[in-house]
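Dear colleague,

Thank you for sharing your sequence with our group. We've completed the structure prediction you requested, and as agreed, I am returning the results in plain text so they can be pasted directly into your records. Please verify that the sequence below matches your submission; if there's any discrepancy, let me know and we will rerun it promptly.
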Amino acid sequence: MPDVLVIGGGNAALCAALMAREAGASVQLLEASPREWRGGNSQHVRNLRCMHDAPQDVLVEAYTEEEFWQDLLKVTGGRTDEALARLVIRASATCRPWMRRHGVHFQPSLSGALHTARTNAFFMGGGKALVNAYYRSAERLGVQVRYDTPVDRLELQDGRFVAAWSGGQRFAARACVLACGGFESNRDWLREAWGTNARGEHPADNFLIRGTRFNTGTLLRFMMAAGADTIGDPTQAHMVAIDARAPLYDGGICTRIDCVSLGVVLNREAERFYDEGEDFWPKRYAIWGRLVAQQPGQVAWSVIDAKAVGRFMPPVFPGVRADSLPALARGLGLDEARFMHTLQAYNAACRPGSFDHTRLDDCRTEGLSPAKTHWARPIDTPPFFGYALRPGVTFTYLGLKVDHTAAVRFGGRPSPNLFVAGEMMAGNVLGQGYTAGVGMSIGTAFGRIAGTQAAAACGHAHPHLEQDHVAA
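Please find the predicted structure tokens below.
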């Protein structure tokens, strides 16, 4: 029987397994997917948001704790636990040397990833390389890894973990870390959460899943039924506007449409519905999935002209191209008269300014609702392009409530040997909204805490923890 059982196979699970093993605990990791799809949503990530008080190798200038906190506070609208958020922020400053020891390499911010050179450390080779590096290190250290092993229930005794079950197989351990994601790939649960809207639609029927098909929320549902304390709104998620032609699962980051702030976004009625220039893309891109989810048919179109080309990360699939706006409307299948009315009104409302997509410039609209507050330039230079958008769910925020120890709680009482990390508890920090790279910050911080605490529950102390890694 191993000391620590880790359920899940992504970043948070691997951080937990590695930390527990470094502390001297024997560790077994159960991953639901086959080996070739291992890593959960982490196989699709690109970067980690990092606090730093001075330039650090791939990170320029400084990104202080307070600035990180204010960025998080802004996107969450205050729906966050400040103590846990600051724990994550501080941990983000100290984790990279440890990550490097386990084979993770970093590179400078990509040229098309605007505004992240100061705030985000990019993984060389992306999330797949990160996941593979962690698995290599885990296997070298003696972590037992089992693939194709989805856990469907736990044995619990007065809040204490006893064993996990995968079908008819029982896996006992002295402590356990749950790091098996949210419920974003469970269509029935999404339908239940989102219900039916005023138009009689089931919005969730039109959602695409950016990440893994294996995050079905089975253990989250089990834990809720078992009386574990929960946190979060089931309709809140990291939800991005992605290419409507993306696959149902595992489209990843390459399906994102990044030109939203450079043009206008129209719904099925060919009407604008939100300020496309509200803030920089890394801080605001994750609001657009939810906005599109609230539109008729859960579909929208991002429209740009030639002036925007080369200023954003190009999508994988080419957009609809036309040499005139009426032709573009026809190509997108939108009502031509309504489309032209919307575009003409927008163009007429644009006020001259000094366009600069690297700052919050003074190019705005006047007398238009909704306004476009920055980067507003007339869409008047052919060729014109349009991209159909759908909501792309990355991960859901409903999860298990924790404190700084990552312990699962039952009626406010922490379990002595059951811990949780990653997307399954991210709602403690993310009540709504998102900013680029913070999911990896949460998963890395709480994965390492959970692994350390699980090892300690078995009598193993970690030999070289960073001073601020686990709160006193």
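Summary note from our side: The chain has two domains: 4-182+217-234+397-457, 238-392.

Kind regards,
the structure core
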